[in-house]
User: Fold these one by one.
Assistant:
Number 1:
Amino acid sequence: MPKAKKSLGQNFLIDPAVTNQILQFINPDSKDIFLEIGPGKGAITKQLASRVDTTHAVEIDEELSYKLTKLEDKKNFYVHNKSILDFDPTEIFTNKVRVIGNLPYNLSTPIMFWGFKYLANFCDMHFMLQKEFGERLIAKNDNKDFGRITVITQYLTEPEYCFLISPESFSPKPKVESVFIKFNPIVGRSINDPIAIRLQEVTRIAFIHKRKMVGKSLEKIISTEKLDDLGIDRKCRPENISVEDYVKISGALI
Ligand code: SAM
């Protein structure tokens, strides 16, 4: 057995009960097209490929990719040996696909942004993530976990917390707990729309100084009077403003 590569975030799922829980949750329909990020040794992949018409798996590890090709006798199963960050789904899929991945935790943020970039091509996305990172994506305001990535994630998707997974379910055993989260894209929104572009700027400035009042942090781009007009308390800290209020601020700047 090849040694797990820590640099590639390889913690393989070994608990069939968790795989079943995942499959039960995503409830694949035979007509679904699935895209799996980081299939590894195929714990989720094997189940998926036997239940749906088409599965594409993107794995950066050459050795694991080669082993997965043995599954290719399953109809419509394809392995792409490359980084998901270099994978352009629009070159392959003409219909919307469902995305799933037990992610390499060191790449969670870039993979989330990769997902946002191609959101219009996805029916939904399901990711297994480090618990602390997942909590940032689903946080509500007035919470220490609420930050820039929370706002962008919840502008573009409705995240749905599914379940917690213990370190014992993986080999090698990670030091952290994991969560499984479903992201439902919000129709009509895109990372490139004018609000999303402003939102990234506004949240970048607001969260530079987490202890500073937003009226002060944002004064170069929006006046405190304008914030008052929008009904936003200028004395708030950045984590106290709701996603909707960040959207309101961004809308006022277009
Ligand atoms: N899905 C498998 C499972 O649940 O057992 C493996 C999950 S493991 C946490 C993460 C997987 O992502 C590894 O197989 C690793 O080689 C792969 N990986 C790491 N970086 C990647 C990248 N940039 N693109 C695609 N796959 C990557």
Note: Residues 8-13, 37-41, 43-44, 58-61, 64, 83-85, 102, 104, 107 surround S-adenosylmethionine (CB under 6 Å).
Number 2:
Amino acid sequence: MRPTVYITRRIPDEIIAKIVEQCDIRMWDETDIPVPRNVLEKEISSVEGLYCLLTETIDREILAKASRLKVISNMAVGYNNIDIKAAKEKGITVTNTPGVLTETTADLTFALLMATARRLIESSDCLRGGNWKTWSPMQLTGQDIYGATLGIIGMGRIGASLAKRAKGFDMNMLYYNRSQKPELEKELNMKYTDLDTLLRGSDFVCIMTPYTPQTRNLIGKREFSLMKKSSILINTARGGIVNENDLFQALRDGEIWAAGLDVFEQEPVCLDNPLLTLPNVVTLPHIGSASIKTRMKMAELAADNLLLAIKNQTPKHVVV
Ligand code: DGY
């Protein structure tokens, strides 16, 4: 009998066709609306495979309904949306899509860093709003990028790719990571430090670490108080790593200079989130990996992982 797979969002036709060659599918056929929890609860109870996005919370409660499920294939590198422990206990394989999004996400992180440092959004708004009266010596002045010190929190694949870009801008680099990376240090001329030293010494602090119970609210009031008043925080990892209330206060009170955020504690971000009222915050709707080529590669890799696990073969990227 052919296995059945539930796909939680409309994905590209060629990827659907690939899955349909080997499985029967059901799909939440929407592009912009996540599958409602009650629908997912019902669907998960009768399928062997789940192809899902980071917008789906796959917790212990929902997994209790998954009596036939063999694999959860997450179309993302991050998997904080899935209760890994509960999946493991039930013998369900969980897969993700690392590697294929590394360069695209590093590109976006550097773009956000530059946009924040040089106030690109504010500058564009100034022009379009009719406020460009004349060239003026200190109007819309920002922070230099070349020669500045970049602190990278989390030296995985994306952190290393970001460092390569920063090297081209003659940036000095500090990094904080669970383990030291001597090879990379030599190649990119980076210095391994503890978190506080990184925060004190950096002009830019980029968060590139996975979201885990250990990294939840890793950056809050105490950490902002250590940072330079001229420093910029960039987060393209997960919103929950930063305490948003503390970030708001630090930005409002001039404890740090600006922030560039692609991710938020709650997504989509509520329009009454106070961070959206600040001119020194550049905000994006979680588009780190959003290039056409990369999203296609992620969708395909998630399908490959799913199909291998369904056939009891080892997927390309197994989380548990
Ligand atoms: C991921 O893959 O975890 C990103 O946040 C989205 O590409």
Note: Residues 19 and 303 are 7 Å apart (CA to CA).
Number 3:
Amino acid sequence: MTTVQQPATRSADDIRGDFPILSRLVHGKPLVYLDSTASSQKPVAVIEAMSQYYETTHANVHRGVYEISEEATAKMERARVKVARFINARQSKQVIFTRNTTESINLVAYSWGYANIKAGDLIVLTGMEHHSNLVPWQMLAQRAGARLEFVPVTDDGLLQLDVYEQLLQQQPRLVAFTHMSNVLGTVNPAQEMIAQAHAAGALVLLDAAQSVPHMPVDVQALDVDFLCFSAHKMLGPTGIGVLYGKRDLLEAMPPFMGGGDMIRTVGLRESTWNDLPWKFEAGTPAIAEAIGLGAAVDYLNAIGMENARQHEQNITAYAMEQVQQVPGLIIYGPGAARRGGVISFTLGDIHPHDLASILDQEVGVAIRAGHHCAQPLMERFGLAATARASFYVYTITDDVDMLVKGLHKALEIFKL
Ligand code: C6P
């Protein structure tokens, strides 16, 4: 088992040593990875936990009565317990493994939504949602004849909370919003918004794809009804995500998908369902990925989520200060204190895709360019696309400096 050094003593410089990919070259230059919001890189501890599982333990889970199947089952269920503790869930059965945030949201929209949302019901969303927290509700609303309303976004990239309060007076059944915007970096005041929604009689689904990887998230303190996130954005593998739900809600919800593992008894014409969490986990699960997620949680715990948040705030403040000095550069969203480690920007009239290509080829910097799966938000700011740099526990100021160097290079190339 790989052990992880204790947190406070570990600098980002030191942490980088655990990420093999960060020592590779791109176009003959050291890789500078500034796209962790899209997907984070993986430490050796996660890679080894998964390969060790395949080398020594792989078998299907919840079925075999032989040793390695029992070991595989125990490892996977241990990972579930780790995830539950990480978000402070009361019980591990409240942690359902899905494929990703997108599937977690769809699970709630189909299972809870189709059972509970009726014609004329209101669902409140915001103008800064990722398509994953928008399209499933559009599909539900169209089918059920329900209404969607949106909390607008201010010019500073914050939610217009006075409008939120007005919308709550219309007694929505559900409020679904992002904890942290993947475009603007805005960290929304989730605890207050959830309390207000509950007071108005609504349930709340929190899209935590960008918060769980980057800050302490406590589902009991938040009192949130449903919480969704993806392993691949928090140092874990692709192919596994999490839906947390309050137990009474999950117990009352019908299954999302039918098949093996999610049943208790099956007859030719009807079946009965397994207990939580397996009622929602039809078919062979992503076993190695669950174990990898467990290792990622161990790794993040060793760093400490408060430390991770602090480091990202420091790097973001530094980056905002530095990139702002590049002539013609516009940053979208709030100041460093109200955001996570994400900076979306434009540079003069250089197309963000051109900018991303130049950064890649000239200085080895990987950033994302495009609409970031948030087209309505782009429209709100009158943009087709932005360039976006994002940070994590392994980001250092040298990375930011290389970004700034690349931005100057782009100005040179475009003669701006
Ligand atoms: N955002 C980005 O580059 P999945 O793809 O299911 O793991 O995560 C979807 C998702 C949901 N909500 C938010 C706030 C997100 O940021 C994402 C993923 C990536 O911004 C990929 S589009």
Note: Confidence is low (pLDDT under 50) at residues 1-7.
